[in-house]
């Protein structure tokens, strides 16, 4: 291809350009993405500058052969909610399906729940309905639909998204609506069966809306570039990078495929350049100005098919990239005890302090202060006029002030340099943890991998990140600073076509799919051919999405014979999750054809310039706490094979590479830089046991990261939907006394209550031996209710004499026996009716899982577990999670030493304790009593001791033991208190035992929050826990009551069982209205997608919508509840455990209460039966069950 080629990555902070000259040599360029004072568009400006054009000179179109781009235009429009006004067209009864989503809240401890803003501005329901099996229940009224669409068009909408229930498979109604919309003149029509033809209404609907919302914005941007490059429709080819890692012609570029456009180019560039250098097992480390993208490669591109971007679910193939908010622009903070980095960023304007635009201190400034970045070697594009060098004076002044502030607060003398290094250490730890999420957490040992470093800021931190991961080799390409742009230039043209199958795997199925394969392959190949690729350079790949029956987790495997597909699936499943389930049927969920048009091979010639004086100077830098006289050299001056020992700094136009002490760098014949650790890291970090504000933040993050890694192992290896998909589990670390150190933010009702289980095991087992693991669910010995089973592992020191910590995992098991399926009888009066009780059971002895013993316990007794094999599979997953926690914490001990780890276990508790004491400082004495529907009550009196900065939480006055099952074991009351005070802190502190240290908790005995055996407890965990929390908030007065119930809805028969909790309204605060339709307080479990629910069970979900007006009125309104109605097609037993059917959720300061909920059975003949808070009944085919969930209370008197 003769002529210039420009490969451009328009990022959030910088725009990178790689230009390939007609002679094959390359040149790179970097400029700010936003600089409206000087130019309109960074991409076009970059082309102009590389061509040496003056202002006003026309572009020489005949000299440009191709422009290939990645852009953040779509991502920015999504983040800033500046897309095209869009209307959503969906099935009657599901207008709120995307808004409700899967009902979880994003931040567990936020009093003001903020959900991502919906992209659509109008929803229209059309009266139509198709079943999961394809039968038309309600035909589409075409005339009425046309009238509705005419009204939408009349309101000025140009973009619509059409997503009907089961429209992914039964497409007729969507096609009719598409045709009508076209006739009415809509300019952007996105239809779900074309955009994402796979099951799941919520994620498919979101993806369809994203496409309609972003495509017009993207098209306008593409057209603006096109007009400048091809004003008369002739000129260079214009192509864009897609999220899936392939290029496409500008005319085919869609909103849904643009969200990872630039980062995907980085992964392609990483693979192409690293493989050329001889490396094939890679960790991508792409650090830019705003964030860091990390990726994993072990022979093939890894893709994810469902992800969240800017709070929106997107179901489209994307390169698997994990992003952490740690970039050069990440802002530096000090909260009085801990140093923190990000997640907020200084961006490009004003940028970090050194940019000279009055910006805040950021990571880039830390490197400037430490001497690793010097003004004379950095582009002079800063200041108000864009022509100034880095402002070192401002950086030095601000760090001096920072150091003084931190020294005063911590009592430890800090220099500006030690503070800067501390912030760098925290950022490095955050980035290393992000890499662990996509590698170590998924079972990869990355110590033998190569860290491929790119992005403008990557080279400054690569050695530090590699050291934290135990990686000893780094690859940095000559164009590493602009590798995303390079990858965009090297990428192939790709087109992916998907289709739904949803059928059991069989030879007959594979034969029946052949015509679809042929059709999809022809379509994909033709699209690639229209982009100028000849047949000989086109290849195709066929894949199936396969999952186990009853699971949502599909894996991509190559198409082949029935046995071949099964073997490939099982091999991948075992590798990924550690087990297979040969007894379960395999479901082919989808098929996918990918056509690849191979790009022209490019022999990249380095833009090498001979530099006589290789050394640019020797300057003072601070590395690893010491000042070094450090040589700075031009990277392009390195001779092949000449090692450069650290400390040293290599400078080039698009980036800076810092070679830390103990590392060496060598350039190969292609100019690639290979960094290797040549001096072994010290076995242990030299850190004292006294508290340090830097290490305090690092250990907070380390402990939490270990708990999160445990959670990932449990989620991946569990067999049940409850744990694997509803995410009803928690994992935690404990000190040798059983005090909580870190609890990953999984399920709120578990938070804090697990510590009681650990201490119970400690009390009952004065002598434990290495290799032992215990299991328990006993409500009167540290447990909560019987379905919540806790696995506890003591961890011994190297001499196997002393226990140095505990790890534990708790999971909600779908069934543990009892009188009804699901172990949640609405009318139980003793705990024996609720399932099998496990108290201090040795589950693993000397490293051996005691299968026969636990199986016997689960299957014995009057009401045994209904699926003991699944229970055991989940218990084994919980053991695996504990093993993960053990191995990771041992790594930390090996690095820092046991004395340091134990010291920081205490320090993180002290930090949390001080945060709670600050809350207590602002409290006054208060009390509150909250009535339940049946007349029982929870009472609390909070007495504050300001002198000692402590408080007494006295629940005297709470009702005696409940005659039913609303009794909450004492561990639940402790968890509730812990949760409330963690919410009141209103800051990102760790949740641990320190939070409870300033609090004395008095629980009357016996009472419904401190019962004795054999009182029933099933509703205590799920319902009374909510009452305790609301009573505490009622006393404090900062939050109106939310719906105050989990609306537990359990139904099933011998063949089917389902358990769900249903969201409602959140309470208002003085700052904000309550959130509609969201889980609050002690639960955050997910809800099954409507299409999946109907596919799995013989039911019809007739509606799930927001219950408008159910939130209490006030200065701030309470959030609205929901309405959920299910039509049963088989006879089933139904159990409901709920609250606030009589007593409404309270308002605060004159705010009105929220509406009470309703539970009703609507018989097929139309007769209606209303139930109270608890219901246990039977339904027949044709019966409907409807639950209206309560609204939240209002805050303050409404203004007239």
Structure description:
The protein is of the alpha+beta class. The mean pLDDT is 90. Helix 2 crosses helix 7, helix 10 (392-410) crosses helix 11 and helix 17 packs antiparallel against helix 21. The longest helix has 29 residues, at 201-229. Strands 19-14-13-22-23-34-33-30 form an eight-stranded mixed β-sheet, with helices on both faces. Strands 36-35-39-38-37-40-41 form a seven-stranded antiparallel β-sheet, with helices on both faces. It has a six-stranded mixed β-sheet with strand order 3-2-1-4-11-12, with helices on both faces. It is built from 25 helices and 54 strands.
Any key phrases for this structure?
1200 residues, 54 strands, globular
* Strand line-up in the sheet with most strands: 19-14-13-22-23-34-33-30
Based on Cα principal axes, name the global outline: globular
Class of secondary structure makeup: alpha+beta
What proportion of the residues form beta strands (DSSP E)? 25-35%
Gyration radius, in Å: 31 Å
**Average pLDDT level:** 90
Main pleated-sheet profile: 8 strands, mixed
Classify the oligomer.
Answer: single chain
Contiguous low-pLDDT stretches (5 residues minimum) are none
- How far apart are the first and last residues' alpha carbons, in Å? 71 Å
Number of helices: 25
Helix content: 25-40%
Overall number of strands? 54
């Amino acid at each position: 291809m003769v002529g210039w080629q420009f490969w451009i990555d328009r990022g959030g902070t910088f725009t990178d350009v790689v230009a390939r000259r007609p002679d094959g040599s390359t040149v790179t360029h970097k400029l700010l993405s936003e600089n409206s004072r000087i130019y309109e568009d960074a991409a076009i400006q970059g082309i102009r500058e590389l061509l040496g054009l003056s202002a006003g000179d026309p572009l020489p179109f005949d000299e440009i052969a191709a422009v290939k781009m990645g852009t953040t235009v779509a991502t920015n429009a999504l983040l800033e909610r500046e897309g095209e006004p869009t209307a959503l067209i969906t099935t009657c009864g599901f207008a709120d399906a995307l808004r409700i989503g899967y009902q979880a809240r994003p931040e567990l401890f936020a009093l003001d729940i903020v959900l991502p803003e919906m992209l659509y501005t109008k929803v229209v329901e059309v009266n139509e309905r198709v079943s999961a099996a394809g039968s038309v229940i309600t035909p589409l009224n075409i005339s009425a639909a046309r009238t509705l669409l005419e009204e939408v068009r009349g309101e000025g909408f140009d973009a619509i998204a059409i997503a009907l229930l089961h429209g992914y498979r039964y497409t007729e109604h969507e096609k009719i609506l598409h045709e009508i919309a076209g006739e009415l003149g809509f300019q952007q029509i996105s239809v779900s069966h074309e955009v994402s033809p796979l099951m799941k209404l919520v994620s498919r609907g979101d993806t369809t809306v994203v496409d309609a919302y972003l495509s017009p914005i993207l098209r306008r941007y593409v057209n603006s570039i096109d007009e400048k490059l091809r004003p008369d429709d002739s000129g260079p080819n214009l192509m864009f990078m897609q999220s899936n890692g392939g290029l496409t012609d500008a005319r085919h570029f869609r909103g849904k495929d643009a969200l990872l456009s630039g980062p995907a180019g980085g992964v392609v560039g990483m693979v192409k350049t690293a493989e050329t250098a001889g490396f094939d097992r890679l960790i991508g480390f792409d650090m830019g100005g705003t964030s860091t993208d990390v990726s994993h490669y072990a022979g093939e591109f890894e893709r994810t098919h469902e992800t969240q971007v800017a709070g929106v679910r997107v179901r489209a193939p994307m390169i698997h990239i994990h992003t952490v908010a740690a970039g050069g622009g990440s802002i530096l903070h000090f909260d009085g005890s801990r140093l923190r980095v990000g997640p907020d960023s200084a961006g490009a304007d004003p940028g970090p302090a050194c940019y000279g635009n009055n910006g805040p201190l950021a990571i880039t400034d830390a490197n400037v202060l430490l001497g690793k970045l010097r003004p004379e070697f950095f582009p002079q594009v800063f200041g108000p006029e864009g022509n100034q060098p880095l402002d070192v004076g401002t950086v030095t002044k601000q760090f001096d002030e920072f150091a003084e502030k931190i020294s005063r607060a911590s009592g430890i003398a800090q220099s500006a340099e030690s503070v800067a290094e501390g912030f760098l250490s925290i950022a490095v730890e955050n980035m290393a943890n992000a890499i662990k999420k996509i590698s170590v957490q998924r079972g990869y040992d990355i110590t033998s991998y190569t860290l491929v470093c790119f992005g403008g800021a990557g080279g400054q931190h690569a050695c530090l990140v590699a050291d934290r991961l135990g990686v000893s080799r780094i690859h940095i390409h000559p164009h590493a600073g602009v590798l995303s742009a390079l990858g965009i230039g090297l990428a192939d043209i790709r087109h992916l076509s998907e289709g739904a199958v949803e059928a059991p795997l069989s030879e007959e199925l594979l034969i029946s799919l052949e015509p679809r394969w042929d059709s999809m392959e022809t379509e994909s190949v033709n699209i690639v051919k229209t982009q100028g690729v000849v047949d000989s350079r086109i290849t195709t790949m066929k894949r199936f999405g396969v999952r186990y029956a009853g699971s949502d987790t599909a894996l991509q495997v190559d198409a082949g014979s029935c046995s071949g597909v099964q073997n490939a699936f099982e091999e991948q499943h075992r590798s990924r999750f550690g087990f297979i389930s040969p007894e379960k049927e395999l479901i082919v969920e989808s098929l996918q054809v990918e056509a690849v048009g191979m790009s022209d091979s490019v022999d990249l010639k380095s833009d090498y310039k001979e530099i006589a004086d290789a050394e640019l100077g020797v300057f003072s830098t601070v590395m690893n706490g010491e000042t070094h006289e450090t040589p700075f050299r031009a990277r392009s001056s390195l001779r092949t094979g000449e090692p450069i020992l650290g400390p040293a700094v290599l400078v080039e136009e698009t980036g800076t590479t810092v070679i830390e002490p103990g590392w060496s760098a060598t350039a190969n014949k292609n100019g690639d830089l290979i960094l290797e650790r040549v001096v072994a890291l010290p076995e242990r970090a030299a850190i004292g046991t006294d508290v340090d504000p830097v290490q305090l933040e690092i250990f907070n993050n380390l402990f939490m990261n270990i708990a999160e890694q445990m959670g990932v192992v449990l989620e991946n290896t569990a067999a049940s939907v409850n744990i694997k998909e509803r995410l009803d589990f928690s994992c935690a670390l404990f000190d040798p006394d059983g005090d909580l150190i870190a609890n990953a933010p999984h399920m709120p009702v578990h938070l804090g209550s697990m510590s009681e289980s650990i201490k119970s095991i400690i009390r009952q087992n004065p002598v434990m031996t290495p290799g032992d693991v215990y299991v328990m669910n006993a409500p009167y010995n540290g447990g909560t209710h019987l379905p919540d089973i806790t696995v506890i592992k003591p961890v011994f020191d190297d001499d196997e004499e002393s226990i140095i910590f505990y790890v534990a995992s708790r999971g909600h098991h779908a069934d543990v026996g009892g009188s009804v399926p699901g172990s949640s009888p609405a009318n139980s009066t003793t705990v024996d009716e609720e399932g099998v009780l496990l108290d201090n059971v040795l589950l693993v002895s000397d490293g051996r899982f005691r299968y026969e013993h636990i199986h016997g316990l689960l299957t014995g007794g009057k009401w045994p577990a209904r699926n003991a094999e699944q229970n055991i599979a989940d218990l084994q997953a919980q053991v695996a999670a504990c093993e993960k926690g053990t191995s990771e914490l041992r790594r930390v001990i090996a690095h820092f030493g046991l004395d340091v780890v134990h010291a920081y276990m205490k320090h993180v508790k002290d930090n949390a304790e001080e945060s709670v004491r600050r809350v207590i400082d602002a409290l006054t004495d208060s009390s509150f009593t909250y009535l339940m529907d049946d007349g029982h009550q929870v009472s609390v009196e909070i007495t504050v001791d300001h002198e000692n900065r402590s408080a007494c939480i006295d629940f005297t006055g709470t009702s005696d033991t409940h005659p039913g099952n609303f009794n909450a074991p004492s561990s639940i009351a402790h968890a509730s208190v812990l949760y409330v005070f963690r919410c009141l802190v209103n800051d990102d502190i760790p949740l641990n035992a320190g939070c409870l240290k300033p609090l004395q908790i008095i629980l009357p005995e016996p009472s419904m929050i401190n019962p004795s055996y054999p009182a029933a407890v099933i509703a205590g965990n799920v319902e009374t826990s909510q009452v305790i929390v609301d009573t505490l908030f009622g006393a404090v007065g900062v939050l109106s009551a939310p719906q105050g119930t989990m609306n537990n809805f359990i139904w099933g028969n011998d063949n089917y069982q389902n358990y769900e909790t249903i969201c409602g309204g959140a309470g208002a605060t003085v700052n904000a209205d309550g959130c509609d339709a969201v889980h609050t307080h002690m639960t955050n479990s997910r809800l099954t997608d409507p299409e999946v629910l109907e596919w799995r069970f013989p039911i019809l979900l007739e509606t799930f919508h927001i219950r408008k007006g159910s939130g209490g009125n006030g200065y701030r309104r309470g959030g609205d509840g929901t309405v959920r109605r299910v039509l049963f097609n088989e006879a089933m037993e139904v159990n409901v455990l709920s609250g606030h059917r009589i007593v409404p959720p309270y308002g605060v300061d004159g705010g009105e209460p929220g509406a009470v909920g309703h539970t009703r059975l609507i018989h097929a003949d139309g007769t209606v039966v209303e139930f109270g808070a608890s219901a246990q009944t039977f339904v027949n085919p044709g019966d409907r069950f409807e639950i209206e969930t309560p609204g939240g209370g209002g805050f303050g008197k409404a203004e007239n």
